[in-house]
Amino acid sequence: MSKFGELIDGTTPLLLVFFEELEERYQEFHPTLTAVAAAVGDQGKVIKIDVNKNPKLVEALRVKVVPTLMIYKTGEMVWRQSGEQDANTLIGLLQEFTD
Fold it and tell me: CA–CA separation, 56 vs 96, rounded Å?
């Protein structure tokens, strides 16, 4: 968990995407996440977290549904939602939390 703390501590907004690798919906959502990462560039980050490989983190953050999306900035969760979002919505949210 200390690595997680280091990860979310930055001033750059961080979009965490909790997913299941083999879930068909994730395969369809993946291009959206790639587009978001490309659009925000250095102004934000997109981190994908496989729920099956990170059970302690999933439990600590009470992730019950995949995908679950969270935005962290300076160590605080500033936005959270379960379910897919379109690229423009996610880009707008990340830009909203940039300095």
Answer: 30
Tally of domains in the chain: 1
Range of the domain at 38: 2-96
Whole-structure pTM value: 0.91
Nearest-angstrom CA–CA distance, 75 and 5? 7
Q: Which two tokens stand for residue 46?
A: 């997109």
Which value, to the nearest 10 degrees, does the dihedral of the CA atoms of residues 1, 79, 40, 30 take? 70
The residue-averaged pLDDT of 18-46 equals: 90
CATH number for the domain harbouring residue 81: 3.40.30.10
Which string of DSSP letters, residue by residue, matches 59-97?
HHTT--SSSEEEEEETTEEEEEEES---HHHHHHHHHHT
Length, in residues, of the chain: 99
